[in-house]
Amino acid sequence: MAIQHAVLTLLARGPSGHLLRELRNLDGLRRGADDPVVRLLLSAAGRHVEADLAFVDDAEAALLADGGATLAGLATEATARSVAERIAEQVRTASSVG
User: Fold this and answer.
1) What CA–CA distance (Å, rounded) separates 55 from 81?
2) pTM (2 decimals)?
3) What crossing angle do the helices spanning 36-64 and 69-97 adopt, rounded to 10°?
4) d(C-alpha 65, C-alpha 61), whole Å
5) Intervals of the chain under pLDDT 50
6) pLDDT at position 47, please?
7) What's the total number of domains in the chain?
8) Cα R_g (the chain), whole angstroms
9) Exposed (0-12), middle (13-18) or buried (19+): which is 78, by Cβ within 10 Å?
10) Which of 53, 65, 69, 81 gets the highest tally of CB atoms within 10 A of its CB?
11) Cβ-count burial of 63 within 10 angstroms (0-12 exposed, 13-18 middle, 19+ buried)?
12) Contacts of 57 (CB under 8 A, 6+ apart)
């Protein structure tokens, strides 16, 4: 369930643009670095961003393969859980006040 929410959040935020900017920034820093260790660390960071981009692509392909029905179902479940959690919190708050 938490993984579903994380994937929905990722897709909703449209992270590809942000990740591509991050990758470009890391590449610029790597090319400008004088220290070979710093270049290696920045290269490793870039590989992590590339892996994140690949995951987002995989998630979009898997969740949109059926025209978005799976994604819509997950979104409905997440919304229902969110509403239930907010109601439960309000009940807890009211119980502690009274």
Assistant:
1) 25
2) 0.60
3) 100
4) 6
5) none
6) 97
7) 1
8) 20
9) middle
10) 53
11) buried
12) none
